[in-house]
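Let us work through a complete example step by step.
Step 1: write down the sequence.
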Amino acid sequence: TFNANNSPTAVTETSLNTSLVVAPNPTADGFYLITAKTEYLTVYNALGQVVFHQNVSPGTYVSTQQWNDGLYILKSGNQSAKLVVQKK
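Step 2: predict the structure and record it as tokens.
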């Protein structure tokens, strides 16, 4: 016999998005940051590399024209959101 663990496993999905919202999502050219106050925003690509970081105000437009297609994680303080960049 084998000493295998045959019990089921569970994954609890955590919501990454609290009050940091980006629109449109997915995007091809850029997005607007929808937040209540000026934030320091850092954007990471799927490899964990920083592709954008600066202070942004509510309603700021961030261009993604120079970014590759893929999934990006936006972080500001303890808030985060997912962004999908998909070129046409």
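Step 3: interpret the result. The chain has no helices and seven strands.
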